Amino acid sequence: MKKRILVTGGSGFIGTNIIEFYKDNFEVVSIDCAKPRNKNHIGFWKNVDILDEKLTISVFKDFQPHYVFHMAARTDLEGKTLKDYSANIQGVENVIKALNYSSSLEKVIFASSRLVCEIGYNPKDEYDYKPSTIYGESKIIGEKIVRDSKELTSNWVIVRPTSLWGPWFDIPYKSFFDSINKKVYVHPKGLEIHKKFGYVENCVHIMDKLIYDKELNGQTIYLSDFKTLEVKQWADIISQKFHGKKVKSVPIQVLKLLAKAGDILKGIGYSSPPITSFRLNNILTTMDYDTTKVEKVVGVLPYNLEEATTITYNWYKAHK
């Protein structure tokens, strides 16, 4: 008999890739208030908002999942108050309540975010927070709800996705590919910028290992590739696929001027300028996280940077 997997937020970027990974060998149910972005997943989808406590409990009770991936969240940075991010707070509470109706439950993966700390800040431990956004604050509350819950046993892990990319991605992570495709991405001249990003299929592979692992139960880990990438090198790989040549480099002062112009465009209502001060700061800041304990559990990841970029490029071209 097949094991049963329930994914909250299964219509989102990470959720879509989780469903694609498990759909052939497991019974899978996706609950989301949005339709699947992959139309082939419509048969797994139930139109459920996790803020609807009764309906959420009903689905868990009927399906009796063995494994739960709680990916549902509001993830944009446009909210003004914590109330705008109720899905990240009350939604977590509702899912935990629903878990109590799943007698077959073996493991739960709760998704948080690296933005529980501002860009460039390396926390001392998993309880060290320094958010710079309301979204980050909401995710901190969500983490604390999980850790403080009297209803959960220890069969859970909190994952903090870094910047994940790959098939089915969207704004903001797809924007990097868009900017290179449109030849508007330029790299700060002479700067090497190292990031611990995550290719989404590698990260689903990590979570698959975590649902069977007991060593990391009750802990919080960063979800990313294990090797840092150098942004210019990666941009060149992408550009070679689109245009057969490397990206251009310009002095950093030029980029700062362009970013200020992008800020003005965003201020007057342009939704996605090529670059803003926030994006430039994100690009320039080194991002590295300790994944040592995860590496010991998972081992070698299935895709290297070149392979992952090729898969993503092919998906991008097929879904323009």
Coarse shape: globular
> Any idea of the CATH topology of the largest domain?
Rossmann fold
Q: pLDDT under 50 segments (min length 5)? A: none
- CATH architecture label name of the largest domain: 3-Layer(aba) Sandwich
Radius of gyration: 20 Å
β content, as a range? 5-15%
Distance between the termini: 39 Å
Overall pLDDT level = 95
Tell how many strands the DSSP assignment holds.
13
Protein name: NAD(P)-dependent oxidoreductase
Pfam families: Epimerase (PF01370)
Organism: Flaviramulus aquimarinus
Task: Characterize the structure shown.
It is a single chain. The protein has 320 residues and is an alpha/beta fold. The chain folds into 2 domains: 158 residues, Rossmann fold, CATH 3.40.50; 75 residues, no CATH class. The protein is 38% helix and 15% strand. The strands form 4 sheets. Strands 3-2-1-4-5-6-11 form a 7-stranded parallel sheet, sandwiched between helices. A two-stranded parallel sheet has the order 7-10. The chain is globular. The two termini are 39 Å apart.
Which helices and strands, and how do they pair?
Blueprint: E1 4-8, H1 13-22, E2 27-32, E3 45-47, H2 53-63, E4 67-70, H3 90-99, E5 107-111, H4 134-148, E6 156-161, E7 164-165, H5 174-181, E8 186-188, E9 194-195, E10 198-199, H6 200-210, E11 220-223, E12 229-230, H7 231-243, E13 248-250, H8 252-267, H9 277-284, H10 292-298, H11 305-318
Protein name: NAD(P)-dependent oxidoreductase
Domain NAD-dependent epimerase/dehydratase: 5-211
Pfam families: Epimerase
